[in-house]
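Supplementary Methods, section 5.1.

A reviewer requested that the exact input to the structure prediction be made available. We therefore reproduce it here, unchanged from the version used in the analyses.
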Amino acid sequence: MSGQRRTVRLSRGVFLASRRLTKEQRKAVSEVIDGLEQATLPVPSSVRIMLPPVAEGWALRVPYNNLWVVYTFGAQEVFVRAVSRQPPIPAD
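The structure derived from this sequence is encoded token-by-token as follows.
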């Protein structure tokens, strides 16, 4: 699905988490989120995780930061659920 644009939605938690980040961290997170719009998903460096209660999601590390962007996706949309300082626990 490379080259096709998806709509990117952000959860309220993403906005709240961004307030606790430095300007440089916000910029790095924004670049990762912007990249999800056209990327072939899941991004190969993403980790498959389970989200409660029973959903599959993906966590992508923000380069040069101990931050993770947690997302789910469909054919037309990417939903960024969280930005976390906790490394994900892989589902596999």
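Residues 9 and 79 are 5 Å apart (CA to CA). These observations are discussed further in the main text.
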